[in-house]
Amino acid sequence: MTDTDPFRVIFVCTGNICRSPMAEVVLRALADSQGLGSRIVSRSAGTGDWHLGERADERTLEALARRGYDGSAHRAKQFSAASFAENDLIIALDRTHERILRAWARTDDDEGKVTLLRAFDPHAASMDVPDPYYAGPAMFDSVLSMIETATRGLFRQLEPAVRVPQTTPRAMRGPEQEDLP
After folding, report:
1. How far is Cα 71 from Cα 141, in angstroms, rounded to an integer?
2. N or C: which end of the chain has fewer CB within 10 A?
3. Is the pLDDT of residue 165 over 70?
């Protein structure tokens, strides 16, 4: 990553219609709200291909909307070998996804990119974000709360690294600072 390249994060769950789209949308909203939308690329994918091209689960979209997020543009994708090279950080939503991703990694560098989302939540009782697919709206809201908390922790770690250093305006420089070619 150079100073002008965005930092690329991909969130991975099973079918890419519940948990990982939530995390993708939350990180994007955090980055946009802090003026870093061009510095952080937030994506998501699934380990399976069951829902390719589909919108996020309606309950996911409703939970997001209740908190002021818009997930309507999401279309499910599957994680692929190319996803390792296309992303700087690969975030699994539970330990099953983490194991799958580590098994798919071809190099130590690829494997080193894989981490769990809840590792960014110091108060997490479990490292797994539970799958709400077979539950009702309350579970989707609960899962979104877990994702928001952990994603804020992730963002706090990413923010200093992705902020473009501000140059000091010429009028504010001291006499010892001279212009460099």
Report:
1. 14
2. C
3. no
Among the listed residues 13, 28, 39, 118, the single catalytic one is 13
Instruction: In whole angstroms, give the CA distance from residue 127 to residue 116.
Output: 7
Cα gap 141→67, rounded to integer Å: 9
Mean pLDDT for 163-180 is 47
Active-site option among 67, 88, 102, 131: 131
pTM of the shown model:
0.89
131 is catalytic: yes
Give the structural domain span for 63. Answer: 7-159
- Pick the catalytic residue from 19, 28, 43, 118: 19
Q: How far apart are CA 94 and CA 48, in angstroms?
A: 14
Q: Is 70 a catalytic residue?
A: no
What CATH number has the domain bearing residue 123?
3.40.50.2300
- Asked whether the beta carbons of 36 and 159 are under 8 A apart, the reply is yes
